[in-house]
């Protein structure tokens, strides 16, 4: 494919990067959704299983591995696609978790569900970029899963019905 054809289709290098991330992550998130739905009876255990899957896939999924390895080596050329930009990986992760948590905890406040999804995604990405322990150990003791479980156990405010 010629350079003009690529730019005509994607607009810019950033557009090509977004298209690549979108394409590669669709299959990844489909597998993650399969873990969450219907999932284990315990919400925290389901989150731990999903986090473990994500941590293990980092080594097997070419795009994730490239992004994470570049970030660990000090290059942030691909990292924004996982972290700061409102792009496919971050938004899709949050939407998947928000929808799943809403189904799991239908009586919980929407803001708590939103916070729980946000905490889980941010902490899991942090574990990817700055690993400290083997994936199976990290997932089992995941601060994200514990924090989410605690958030979801909070009672609703009387004013919110």
Structural write-up:
- The protein is mostly helical and 161 residues long.
- The protein has one domain.
- The chain has eight helices and no strands.
- The longest helix is centred in the N-terminal third of the chain and has 24 residues.
- 25% of the residues are buried.
Run of helices and strands: HHHHHHHH
User: Residue-averaged pLDDT, rounded?
Assistant: 76
Radius of gyration: 17 Å
The largest β sheet comes out as:
none
* Percent in strands: under 5%
Compute the number of structural domains.
1
Helix content: over 70%
Number of helices: 8
Number of strands: 0
End-to-end span in angstroms? 57 Å
Uncertain parts: none
- Tell me, briefly, the overall form: globular
Question: Structural class, from helix and strand content?
Answer: mainly alpha
Give the topology.
Layout (H helix, E strand, L loop, with lengths): L2 H8 L2 H24 L6 H18 L1 H11 L15 H17 L5 H20 L5 H6 L2 H11 L8
Helix pairs in contact: 1-2, 2-3, 2-5, 3-4, 3-8, 5-6, 6-8
Report a brief summary of the structure.
It comes from Streptomyces candidus. The chain is mostly helical.
Q: What attributes characterize this protein structure?
A:
single chain, 8 helices, AcrR family transcriptional regulator, globular, 161 residues, AlkX_C, mainly alpha
